[in-house]
């Protein structure tokens, strides 16, 4: 156990909670009734359930998303044209399919073709969705968006790795992100984002997840390497990935796990030292248990004094998301551990459903997009109520306009000040600009998710963005519509100015002839 990392206060608390933390299930939380979203929150009552955002009227914080001039007036025309073109291409599913086919084909093995494609990508999608190739370019991007009233979430955009040398290199990149955040103007960076898949071999994450799942099924299953953590599963969690009792970790695997922990602890210590919050990104359900284990064990060590440094991520498209969020938050609060979460909808809908179907199980994803929206809004409401009671923090990462409007209204109704450091809205860089500007104009803190790194290294990230967001980009046309209106307004203004100049010149000529 990692008791040597815990404060004296937590050490005195943990003996009675160790088993609860390591094997908590829905059954063990007998006092947790089914979530009732019709109740109003009472002060300092974590047991009370959130009032559903769906029932909140948008009265105090209605977002103005109609005034295209106010939303996009500060963006240069050339940038606006480029953004509209990139969004249009990204929303075209045939174009996305063709681009992904090229990127995954043998054409990329030919240096001339590869160089040409990477150059094209760099000046189109990379420029639109990424902050740059170097820390200097990322810093310039942060300053630009900060001038517009946004903050940056710095992401050293590396994906999965399978060996320790690569994990060590990726750690240096993440540490560089923290150093970069420290060097930038105060409050211009809200978070540094880390991927556990970048600092722990992917195969090991699968093994650890299997072992954690089996221990949840059989609490007597002993894991000698396991640190104190918070609840990872609920009775509705997907456990079908592990159908047979897994073998214990080998000495080599335990050694690699220890190395991965040391990498994360080094990153956390750097964040504490420089007072930079760290958010751990979520992945698919095959490895998410291990990621939550890393996240929560680190949060126990480093989240203190109402200052959550380590944030977890909850994916609202999962059927167990709401239950897990409640259980984890309740346990953390009872232990005096401030916990922060980033709320997202999720990005692996197709692959998750296919795997579950292949194994003969129901999908872990909600059956409809409406259910996912409802879950997201309920989770957001729950966290906003905790913040109003003085506990925790939340990043509401959403591209859904209704969710943004509802959360803004809920925050105002609860008396949460718009500058409250425990509440942050966030969108991907290059996406949902209207919502970002609308929330900013309403006085809320808004961050943009800023991936950066060499084009060839960031390519897997861009491919995943294209695949994950094709539905979002093709169905959400708000940005494109508003950008089109703003461009038309500028064109009419230009035409009027030219007409006025022509008329003035004509008058001068007439005057000159008389």
Automatic annotation (TrEMBL):
The keyword Protein biosynthesis does not apply. Residues 144-474 form the Proline dehydrogenase domain. Keywords: FAD, Flavoprotein, Oxidoreductase, Proline metabolism. Converts proline to delta-1-pyrroline-5-carboxylate. It comes from Gossypium arboreum (Tree cotton). It is an enzyme of class 1 (oxidoreductase). It holds the Pfam family Pro_dh. This is Proline dehydrogenase. Its EC number is 1.5.5.2. The keyword Oxidoreductase applies. Gene3D superfamilies: 3.20.20.220. Its cofactor is FAD. InterPro entries: FAD-linked_oxidoreductase-like, Proline_DH_dom, Proline_oxidase. Belongs to the proline oxidase family. GO terms for biological process: L-proline catabolic process to L-glutamate. PANTHER family: PROLINE DEHYDROGENASE 1, MITOCHONDRIAL (PTHR13914:SF0), PROLINE OXIDASE (PTHR13914). GO terms for cellular component: mitochondrion.
